[in-house]
Fold this sequence. Notes:
Structural class: alpha+beta
Largest sheet: 8 strands, antiparallel
Number of strands: 33
Distance between the termini: 88 Å
Strand order of the largest sheet: 13-12-18-9-10-17-14-15
Number of helices: 34
Oligomer: single chain
Radius of gyration: 35 Å
Amino acid sequence: MGLTSLDKIIALQRNPANTRNLCILAHVDHGDQEYLLNLIDSPGHVDFSSEVSTAVRLCDGAIVVVDAVEGVCPQTQAVLRQAWLENIKPVLVINKIDRLIMELKLTSQEAYTHLQKILEQVNAVTGSLFTSKVLEERAEKEKEEEEKEKEKDGDQVYDWSTGLEEADDSQLYFSPDQGNVVFASAIDGWGFSIQQFAQIYSQRMGVRAEVLLKTLWGDFYLNAKAKKIMKGAQAKGKKQLFVQLVLDNIWSLYDAVVTRRDKEKVEKVVTSLGVKVMARDSRHSDPKVLLSAICSQWLPVSQAVLSMVCEKLPSPLDMAAEKVEKLMSVGARRFDLLPEQTQELKKAFLQCSSGEDAPAIVFVSKMFAVDTKALPQNRQRPLTQDEIAQRRELARQRHADRMTADQTATENKMESLTLKDPKPEEEEEQKETFIAFARVYSGLVKKGQRVFVLGPKYDPAQGLSMLPEGCSASDCVPEVPYLSCCSMESLYLLMGRELEELEQVPAGNVLGIRGLEECVLKSATLSTSPACPPFTPLNFEATPIVRVAIEPKHPSEMPKLVRGMRLLNQADPCAEVLIQETGEHVLVTAGEVHLQRCLDDLRDRFAKIEISASKPIIPFRETVVRPPKVDMVNEDLGKQQKVAIIHQVKEEVTQGRSSDTLHVDPSGLVTVTIPNRMATVSVRAIPLPEEVTHLLERSTELIRSLEQVNMSLREGKTVDVSLRTMEAIAGLKAQLENLLQGRKWRNAVERIWAFGPRRYGPNFLLNSVEGYQRLSVWHCLGRGDKAGEAGAAVIRDFDNSIVSGFQLATLSGPMCEEPLMGVCFSVERWDVQSSAVPQHQDSLEENSISHEALANSRVEGSTKTSSEVEGTVAGQSQARRRPEAASADCYRPVSGQLIAAMKEACRRAFQAQPQRLMAAMYTCEIMATAEVLGRVYGVLGKREGRVLHEEMKEGTDMFIIKAVLPVAESFGFADEIRKRTSGLASPQLVFSHWEVISSDPHWVPTTEEEYLHFGEKADSANQALKYMNAVRRRKGLYVEEKIVEHAEKQRTLSKNK
């Protein structure tokens, strides 16, 4: 294939019907018309799955590459899920089929069975994604039907399979007869789809190509006598058509060329295939050279893959309406509730028009840094003959002047050179230029054009109301929240490492944009219309969890480090840069490989200084558990011993604090009184069931949306929330009610006061105060408790102080200042003296405001629900009190002291229960042969890993081991596995969950059996204590440890006394 000129590419860009935007998704081990293909490659390692997300967003289709030997790996499942979430169509390439012949020594029949299994594995992944989607849609429809048919009598039987039977999944699965599968060996240069062989054999056998296309893959065989294609090859012991007509030919070619090196047979094959082989290839000592020469002409892999891409992958004109609505509906917003002008933009997306009147809509998926010298305007171009002659003449003249010049002139020249030296140093700092990697969805983008940059929180309804009608980005725009303007200085065509400058880019194309580094951090939506909403954020599979603190080796270079980390943060979609309270600069990455890449980039590209990185900062969580039933040697604890242990903990808790402000009840209830004696709060810590903790952790985004809705209602604002979001919130509440069963959790879900930390974490505050009726967190659903009574109105003034204290307590626990997880804090008593609050005035004000709000809601037609009216009342009362609050006594000492008291009560209540650390865990999948299995188990055991299961992969001698491994023990794990197994095993680590470490970090032997087993010192390794002390030491907290471990008299060789 020859090189295509830039003019030809620009011409092809104007035809979106013949444009294909696609990406290659793989795991780490593996016509007549003219088409423009924008091919985006993405790394296969699991640490860089964020790069896959940025590529997938800009594409309409994807090539999923699967290894023929290893089959579906964890990363394959991840990329298929990402493609599904972004509504892009995938096609499949099964690569490395040569390994089935050369390494596994499979026969053609065995290889066919093996390839069938790989297809089943891939289709099982896509099938499960499709099934879950259909069942969700079916459940939504069923809810609507139930509401309509409530009046009808009789029991209804619900059949979950009805939705699946009706749904069309004909185009969903990968099947060679559909033309969306290519079998290939990229290293040997060949690849084919069934269509190619159907065309070849239809001419030879006199069978229609359509018939062969349907029968070449499947249980069909050729009946030589009847000269018919018949079904039932496996039952009758016959060779399938695919084996007989396709695989046997490839196997025989490898046998002749590589295995036997039979020159006569090779010549026959070359003649029958009609290919030309050069003499040097046939005489080459490596048979693979001859094989590649034959295969690349017979079955070129490029032709097979590109034909499949052009025929099966959609063009930008084929974008689904569902995908457009999904892109435009951010968070809790419903598409049908967006402004009319915004909804009209859907047509612009679907038409993919490049007309002058079409609004320009561009999405930037990532920013990447390039060397300034690599930009087209700075790149050296080849000189013409005239320019060469002119430069030669100038050089001669300069040489002559230098020879005739005297010594003083030379010195002056040197001085002038030294004066000019600082300039290159200044320019050196600007060596990296950021280019935005983007796609045009609508309109024609021009060089120098000004556009609106829409932040993720930008509201098009608010923007349209604040901006004058017909306003454009080039006008003087008033300040609008989360909206800014910028100009696109240069547009580039991305040609691998090369950049080609363009004047304009039409819709449906991928491009690079310079000049956005000041306006765009990582990703953004650009548009000429303020009615355009920001696109939904990218779906990242990898969770940034590995942290390191970074500092320069020479303190004077700190400004360079800060600048370098800012550039790295902008260039990497997954990396995060933080400055902690201690002043440390922290880099957060997805894994060990990602961390190393970021540190190398920082040293070599962005900061260009020597840096020192700390040991990885491992996150932990703190939790409480139910009192243990057995001791450390698995002996049953008697009632007296168990109580003794709990009392021992309680005694330790109460030490060091005066009893007049702190009291710890034997049952674990902690009561704290604030210093000025005006308020008292009693709190109990209760461990949450494991299922509830997992549910809250999974529902982080939903709880955040719930908090945003509640905040808007408290402020008296009206919020348009999508029906799906409200149903999801109601579903979360129902799940919590189902999981929190039993006497102690009675009505607990309705009494949830707040979630924490940061108002959406996996802990919650429970309102168990008698007589305090406050709005539940679920009041946006319209089923919350009614507004408080007059007595409760006094306490409501300090409601926020209690919540703030809870948020602070859950953000940093007492064990090692790490966030809490899976803890419920129940407030059982809360007394405030009446002298602390101007009660009468506030309650009168609230009554008058509530009457006003109710009257207004009646005038407006009573369209608001009761919960919305209550939210409006609360918002108005808060707004009216705010000017007076500054002078009121209650907002000076009492509020702050109550926050501190609540935090202290939560921490003490936490310490009154059995405490445990929670470690972050990786799921580890290892493929290894039987010979090295024992060594793999040895490395896992040494690093506190736990094997979940192992299974042998059918048709191979490989074992798949699935294990869990603490993140704290994972550093150097992959290298150690490779060293111990001589490279025969390679692990894939993906963050999975948080797990409670069973050992108690504060444990001391108390029973006779424990003294006998562990000794009086009990100095055997306590994993939880080791982790806790390491975190405390890093944070500069007090660590209780012995300076001398074993104080014995020194013995020398000369004297043994």
